[in-house]
Hints:
This protein has helices at residues 5-26, 30-53, 62-68, 73-82, 85-88, 100-121. The protein is mostly helical.
Amino acid sequence: MEMKNEAKKWFDKSKQDLINAEYNFDGNKFDLSAFLIQQSVEKSLKAMQIEKSDKFDKIHDLLTLAKKLEAPEQILKFCSDINPFYTIARYPDVEEEINRKTAKDIIEKGKKVFNWIEGNLMQ
């Protein structure tokens, strides 16, 4: 099945964010890699919303987006785990440090969400 043009744009950008997250992880830029994986998941969820309903919610809450798509429990858990990195990775007043282990974990979870969405979009 061919994906809607607008959904494809969002999904392609999501894929680029995923690639950039891995690239920055390899360069020890863990804050940026965690933020980019959050962005990848957000954009892929929105691509799926566009594909299903021609619109998307203008929010950044991955868990809410995933729930609206009736994602399985494991995907909801991953989205919940990734969600905080929208702010943790960007603001200096958040006291949590993102180390290699944390970034690797978030990237792996993000890839699983991405792959689940890709499987749904390619049906």
